[in-house]
Design a protein that fits this description.
CATH class of the largest domain: Mainly Alpha
Structural class: alpha+beta
CATH architecture of the largest domain: Orthogonal Bundle
Shape: elongated
Distance between the termini: 56 Å
Number of domains: 2
Helix content: 40-55%
Strand content: 5-15%
Oligomer: single chain
Length: 411
Amino acid sequence: MEDQKELLNRILKLSLEISQIKDIDLLLEKILGEARSFTNCDAGSIYVKDGDSLRFSYAQNDTLQKQLPPGRKLPYTTFSMPIDNHSIAGYVAVNSKMLNIPDVYELDAAFPFSFNRSYDQQTGYRTRSMLTIPLINPRGDMIGVLQLINAKNVTGNVIPFANDHEDIIIYFANNAANAVERAKMTREIILRMNKMAELRDPKETGPHVNRVASYSVALYEAWAVKNGIPQAEIDLNRDKLRMSAMLHDVGKVAISDMILKKPGRFTPEEFQVMKLHTLFGANLFPDIYSDFDESSRIVALNHHERWDGKGYPGFIDPQTQKALPGYEDQNGNPRGKKEEEIPFFGRIVALADVYDALSSSRCYKQAWTEDDVINEISNESGKQFDPELVEVFMDCIDTFRQIEKQYPDHE
């Protein structure tokens, strides 16, 4: 009875924590990690409802993770499945009913659903016990499915999931569904802001900003782990950085179409106007009401600065567009920020943005090969980019490949 009370208190605390995460991707990761923690299971995944399908959105697997170098993320492929009775997740979604299966390889043939063994066959993993829970919002709508895999006992052996914890897990899942709804709304608002930029500049697509944000978070997390940053601080900064990175070029809404949609190279005069998008973006967040406002202003203003000081807009007041006192060059113009004068989030998004720009096809250019992109970023270490971040980037290539597949450009 005491264990049950302690578990309930823990669930209440976790429900509060997840309610404070604003970004949907980071929230899904947190929900899955915490659900796995209090059920002591080896692996799990989350599906999010997308129309008439379930989209496989996030996965964790301790056994497979241990086979990777420290700090490396487990790769997984996103896919969708129909919401029907043929799969375990689909059955749970259709019926809004939890399933607790002791061994998925021994399912009775009378069940309408079956277990797909292809992932196990590809990886050598053995899925046994599985607890699959619907995520239901306060209106009673099913918005996703939480799937937990291979519960373990104190000696590390796989066991069935305990029946006496099911009610508490359902309570947690319902709170998680509420948080997912809020985070999806926040993401939609940010994407709508970017839609305005996309209407003006076809390069500013939803997939582009999602990739840049995901690359930025991957870089930050790898750097933070390498430097021993506490997990609580990492989680907080990832949430801020991801949303801020999605808005890095939102200031382009104020740039003239004659310049923004020009297919060729800019004249020097046109380039000076284009540079103003960093100031316009920063001016969208003139009053700092939250950490998100502050980080968004920082990213918008600084993501074109260079480590060698040759970037823009430099030490400038975004509102007056004048150099800050004491930071003028010999011509009275704002000098560029260099090295650690550039805020860290700005340095991260600068690298992520260039990586995506070089890796993507546009109406005026072909995508570079991966080798050419990597060589370019390596050559710009200590010039355009923070050399420590370039070093971290080299360890994140597999993660970047996974992100590219997760957010492909629209056909």
